[in-house]
Each structure stands twice: as structure tokens, then as C-alpha cells.
Amino acid sequence: DADVTQTPRNRITKTGKRIMLECSQTKGHDRMYWYRQDPGLGLRLIYYSFDVKDINKGEISDGYSVSRQAQAKFSLSLESAIPNQTALYFCATSDGPVGFYEQYFGPGTRLTVT
Amino acid sequence: AQSVTQLGSHVSVSEGALVLLRCNYSSSVPPYLFWYVQYPNQGLQLLLKYTTGATLVKGINGFEAEFKKSETSFHLTKPSAHMSDAAEYFCAVSRTGNQFYFGTGTSLTVIP
């Protein structure tokens, strides 16, 4: 089984709908991240969390919210989806300095907002 | 905020030729530096990293990169390209190990 899983893998939704993307990990890492990938823009950090009680905004947090339900689960919500949130979304985990800051990525969720 | 510049959004090389993918960063202090590879329809996986110590780092699949502080560069090389190297490559930097900044990516094509 994959160490970092994301559900759903693909989602099409309409403008104005609320949508949640979920991420689960079995690596036992404390640090979790949400990124979005857009063609020509690379990956940009949306939110990150170092433990259940620690949530931090990244570069592009506007229009998004997150919830860290447990060490292993980190969800990303779009409260009212808009078309420019169409992108590929990645969850990642890290063991921080213990693992020399290497990040482990999930397979991605492709989100289309129409 | 830090920035990462990857010169060349598309690079083509012949099979067996040298691969050189360029990465420059802006940082006031020596950062942590990473190269990740993304194969089609997959997430990213780490190729190699520089945190401290030796400035020439070796990674998986025959790739290596050299941290040059004076040039603020961390270019990725491989002596001989293989067809399986065709993928998208991302350079990433972090000053503290908390937030990470990625370049815009370089798509590598290997010509048989």
C-alpha cells in the first residue's frame, strides 16, 4: 500500500460548491503539506502543519482551509470553488530534520472546477 | 520569499548524452536544496538533496548535483541519458526546512 494516499484522485465540481480533498499517511511523519501544481508555475505551497495543533499558511492560502484531524490525516477544503482553482493538488509528508527534510508526495488529486 | 529559477522549461538530449538541468536560487543564507522528479501521472519523488557537508551530492539513477554558493546554483547532471530519464524535474529550496519553494520545472525529453 502507498505511504501517502489522496482521495479522490479526480474530481469535477461546479463553481460555488464546497469540496474537500483528503490525505492520509502511514509514514508516521508529523509534518504534512498541501501544494497545488499548475502548468508552467511548478508547485506552490497552500498550507502546512507540523502537528495536530499547528497549522500554517503557505504562499497561496486564500480561498482554501485545512484541517489536521490526526497525525495521519490532513484535509484541504475549498469553501466555494472557483474555476481558477482548477489544478493538480498534492499532499506531502516529511520527517523534518530527522529525515533531512525530504518530502514524500501522494499521487495527486486532479480537480476541475467548471 | 525565496525564489527558484529553472532555466529552460524544456530540454532535449540524445540517449547517451550529458544531461544538465539548471537551477538558481535566491537566499541570504545557505539553504537546503533538493531535486525532485515527476513521472507522468505520478507524484514527485526525491532525486537528491543538499543540507550540509559535501557540496557535490549524488542521488538515485546516476544523477548528481553540486551546490555552488558563490553562484547560488544547484545544477543537476547525469553523464549519460537513458530513455527512462524522460520526466519533469523540479528544483526546490528551503531556508529553514519549514517552507519549501519549487521552481517551475524542466521537462526532459530523451531522443533515441
Topology summary:
The complex is a heterodimer of chains A (114) and B (112).
Chain A: E1 4-7, E2 10-13, E3 19-25, E4 31-38, E5 42-51, E6 54-57, E7 64-70, E8 73-78, E9 87-94, E10 103-105, E11 109-113
Parallel strand pairs in A: 2-11
Antiparallel strand pairs in A: 1-3, 3-8, 4-5, 4-9, 5-6, 7-8, 9-10, 9-11
Chain B: E1 3-5, E2 10-14, E3 19-21, E4 24-26, E5 32-38, E6 44-50, E7 56-58, E8 64-68, E9 73-78, E10 87-94, E11 101-102, E12 106-111
Parallel strand pairs in B: 2-12
Antiparallel strand pairs in B: 1-4, 3-9, 5-6, 5-10, 7-8, 8-9, 10-11, 10-12
Task: Briefly characterize the structure.
Chain A has 114 residues and is an all-beta fold. Chain A has no helices and eleven strands. With 112 residues, chain B is mostly beta strands.
Helix-strand string of chain B: EEEEEEEEEEEE
Backbone structural class of chain B: mainly beta
SS summary, helix count of chain B: 0
Biggest interface reads: A-B, 26 and 27 residues
Key terms for this structure?
heterodimer, A: 114 residues, mainly beta, seven-stranded mixed sheet, four-stranded antiparallel sheet, 11 strands, B: 112 residues, 12 strands, globular
Task: Give a written overview of the molecule.
The complex is a heterodimer of chains A (114) and B (112). With 114 residues, chain A is mainly β. Chain A is 0% helix and 58% strand. Chain A has strands at residues 4-7, 10-13, 19-25, 31-38, 42-51, 54-57, 64-70, 73-78, 87-94, 103-105, 109-113. In chain A, strands 2, 4, 5, 6, 9, 10 and 11 form a 7-stranded mixed sheet that branches. Chain A has a 4-stranded antiparallel sheet with strand order 1-3-8-7, with no helix packed on it. The mean pLDDT of chain A is 94. Chain B is 0% helix and 52% strand. In chain B, the strands form 3 sheets. In chain B, strands 2, 5, 6, 10, 11 and 12 form a 6-stranded mixed sheet that branches. With 112 residues, chain B is mainly β. In chain B, a hairpin with a 4-residue loop joins β8 and β9 (73-78). Classes of the chains: A mainly beta (114), B mainly beta (112). The A-B interface holds A 4, 33, 35, 40-45, 48, 50, 56, 58-59, 90, 92, 96-97, 100-103, 105-108 and B 1, 4, 6, 9, 32, 34, 36, 41-46, 49, 51, 90, 92, 94, 97-105.
